[in-house]
Amino acid sequence: xxxxxxxxxxxxxxxxxxxxxxxxxxxxxxxxxxxxxxxxxxxxxxxxxxxxxxxxxxxxxxxxxxxxxxxxxxxxxxxxxxxxxxxxxxxxxxxxxxxxxxxxxxxxxxxxxxxxxxxxxxxxxxxxxxxxxxxxxxxxxxxxxxxxxxxxxxxxxxxxxxxxxxxxxxxxxxxxxxxxxxxxxxxxxxxxxxxxxxxxxxxxxxxxxxxxxxxxxxxxxxxxxxxxxxxxxxxxxxxxxxxxxxxxxxxxxxxxxxxxxxxx
Length: 264
Description:
Elements: H1 15-28, H2 30-52, H3 54-57, H4 68-101, H5 107-138, H6 140-149, H7 153-160, H8 166-174, H9 178-209, H10 214-252, H11 256-260
Helix pairs in contact: 1-10, 2-4, 2-10, 4-5, 4-7, 4-10, 5-6, 5-7, 6-9, 7-8, 9-10
């Protein structure tokens, strides 16, 4: 199967359908999605608090990058963020397919499937992050295009269990569909900014109304930040899972039930 129809037209990615399915899965499995995404994000916050201090981790203070110890902690916190993001995506990819097929699996199953792919995903995510930074030096649109090239690394690594082969696999699957994926990025950013803005405002107002300060205030902000990060990761993880499935449907004629069959 190819991505060109018999009339010579390229099969559309179907951004509208993907977005509709994303929010259907997100709200239809809200508590399970939130448990995964918030749990991973809050764990990341606690680890960052160990490396950088509670005030820096919660955003109440800036790291002192002139101090070698603080700089090392800040670098460690970046790695923690990448690790927790990779874990969240690896877990949410599986949940998205199960939700789409109307079936359930245990968290233990999700973790056992995600862990073998986690190390390659983390290293490839660091590589993509560096390439995106280089792209931003040239042009912001270039950075988005680079991100689109490697957009489906995580589901390829988890589903196909190909380790670092997910790098070239993403390049192949996204070919001819990178600009539509960029469009999906832009829509995703707008939606998450709106959701994040509402959550952040509610959390800050609530913390202020309760008169929380000091350690409790920092922890409260950490909870709000973890909820925000979790929501963003949840929507992002479901989106990348469905985009990967759509690309394989277009290019290889593989249905989502065939994709998810690897977990049976």
